[in-house]
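Why run this: before we spend reagent on co-expression, it is cheaper to look at a predicted model of the complex and decide which construct boundaries make sense. The entries below are exactly what would go into the expression plan.
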Amino acid sequence: MKRNKKQKYNDKFIVYAFMGIILLCLIHIPIYFVLLYTGTITLRIEDNFKSANHKESGLLIDLTNKLEDLKIDIENRATNYFPFYADINLMMRKIDNASNHLIYNKSLPLKLDAGEYIFKNIENDFYYTITTETKETLKNKLNTQVKLFNELSTATTAKVNLYMIPSYEYLEFSNQDRYQNMYQYVDEFKEKLNDDINVSELKINDLKKYQEYLFKTDHHWNSKGAYQGYLDILSMLNENNPKEYKEGIIKNQKMYGSYAKKAFDKSISDTFTYPNIELEEHKTLINQKDKTEVIYKPKSTKKPITSNEFYDYYIKFYQGQYSEVIFDYNNSSKKNLLIISDSYIWPIDEVIASHFNKTHLINLRYPPYDKNKFNYKEYIKNNDIDEVLFVYGMGTMVLDGNNYQIESKIER
Amino acid sequence: MVFSNIVFLVLFLPIFLIFYFTFKKRKFRNIILLVFSLIFYAWGEPIYIILMIFSILLNYFLAKKIDDTRKNKKESKTYLIIALILNIGLLIFFKYSNFLAEIINIFGFKLPYFNIALPIGISFYTFQALSYVIDVYWNNVKVQRNPLYLGCYITAFPQLIAGPIVRYETIEDELDNRKENISLFSEGIRRFILGLAKKVLIANSVAYIADTLFSYSASELGLLGTWIALSSYTLQIYFDFSGYSDMAIGLGKMLGFNFLENFNYPYIANSITDFWRRWHISLSSFFKDYVYIPLGGNRVKKYRHIINIMIVWALTGLWHGASWNFVIWGIYYGILLLIEKYILKKHLEKWPKLLRHTYAILIIMIGWLIFRQTSIVEILDYLKAMVGVYGVGSTKLLKITQIFQMKYIIFWTLGIIFSTPIYKKISDYFNKSNKRKYIFDILLILLFIVTIFYVVVGSYNPFIYFRF
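The model came back. Tokens follow.
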């Protein structure tokens, strides 16, 4: 009898412990929700939310889509309201880093992200990525990109100009790529382009320059890199008299950029800098609205108290997530420019525009271009465009990195 | 929904257990189990819940008809045939229609391909339903007069989407007379934690290695990369599947069910015959009892026996997926089993144990390569790489793909260690006294916490304003 009691005691322990853990996690979800709702606490990770994959409409499909929304909402809450969610992630990252330090002393593997491996350069304190694509896929993507730009160059009389910002993987001194030299793809790309296309890039010949031009924790360029880009672009477009540059710095706030956020690693931080350039009076239309009617380039990084450590300074500072922005400097003696680009252009779009009459900036990521094609020929014709400028990261421009699929988004 | 998901662990499971144990009456507990099982299933594909309910009602009705007409053998058999046609027909429609169209189109036809999603777990629950109606026909089990109970059997979430294939006779009595108690519940928790750890820590880690490396061609991987990839996949498939079976058996125990074992350390097998006695036991025994023996088994002439074996193994391969590589995989094992039975058996027994084991593991690994790769050309290419045709391979690729990480090295090694019965030995050691049992339970709870941490880390996938 006594023995049986002891036996039961043992069994009870694991039952209580197991049930205690899962019930605690269960109770934590509504409590956390109420505390969030009342503003008592804030989410420490703001963007860890999946979105539902909706199917095309139809009676049954609509119902399925609503159920899918509900499911994703529950999954997001169960994940983000999990007890000590951020702390567990940070702790596990530290354990991974510490254990991998035993094997590596130059570069630390951090995470596989969609299409890229993220690494941390231990010796020089910065993050970088390497593509996961196979040689065959890269080759195919390169040919698709070449075909796109060659077709665009003959589609209209507007001159096509390409400007690329390299990532660490494309730089010879990085010696990190698994294909010996990723720059071979850039050479091949340039070689296959029509002669009338202008191509240029942010020249980075050594590690010092790399660290001078790009953020350590983010894929974007910093103020110096962006300003150098502006100078290069002016020269490519045969424009003179560059504006003077002053570096804007957001002091006393640590920036953990996109790489750091993705890898959930806080061991390196940046200071956010931006090119601070005086501009003439001009009109800005954002998706056909005056810029005073929307939130656009607040140029402030006041981090809300509610925000976490991985606050996205770059995005919040520029707030440029619009499909069409038109800068009108009202100088009819100058040319009209069309820029097709992404977030890289935000620090310098207005200043480039100051050298032109009207500058149209198209970002293919946002509605209507997320679902509809951008009609290149028609846009150029309707807006009397003289020059077209594409500004993208080198991987996106040459190899359609991150599966951006520019090719399928442009009607020509 | 899968067991290794946060939603299951911190929402579904605790809420289900609260509801389930709130009620005392068996009938209500079974209703709760049925309702939650349907929610569990609907989580993956809500629309197919209709198919699931249809399958329950169909088999309930037909089994009842088989039983009611038992005195008229012809009529009873007719209902069995209808049940077989409808169950297998549904399986063929959802799983094999495109594959069949592909085969028929080889001969110049132009049959259309359907864009239909495969209902999750259809192969498992169809086989369970089949076992029920066949056993009713054979008079091995009593017909279930309560559709809720039959629904419980077919849909029970612990084994719904990845088995083991629980036969009706196994839980016939437990559907109505099972006794949930703390001893069985705690045993279930131990088994569930073990299964969860196998899946989350080992299977997911080695899956990363296998998936990453197999995305490269054989020539890029070379000898080293291909062997690492294939060994990882060999571990992945075992720890994934057996981990899931452990969780199913554990959850079953928590609810008072005793499902049969599905794995018995298959990678310590000394022959292919031995391997198939240890691997996916519920599937092998299903095919043995419902296909092989009705075909005549081995009590027939040699040529007929060979045909029987080949039919069973081609079907076993096909059960795993509608693709040629699965058929080849099944036939591969059929041929090997015949070779062992008729040629190698006597010689194998004389071989040293290590040699027999090496032979078995090599054959199994090649089998997994066929199982994984859908292209015959790729299979041959990787086989070439395994014997060094493409050179040793570059360690740089292994570094860049982030495979050489301490956690992966540890879990890969643990995978090999825990493929052996070492866990059983550890468990036996700790079972020798109450004090040791207590320590063992503390260790298991710690393992559960660590596993949950890994589940949490796996769910971190923030939206990044990346590149554009």
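Residues 218-254 of chain B form the longest helix (37 residues). Residues 430 and 440 of chain B are 6 Å apart (CA to CA). Bring this page to Monday's planning discussion.
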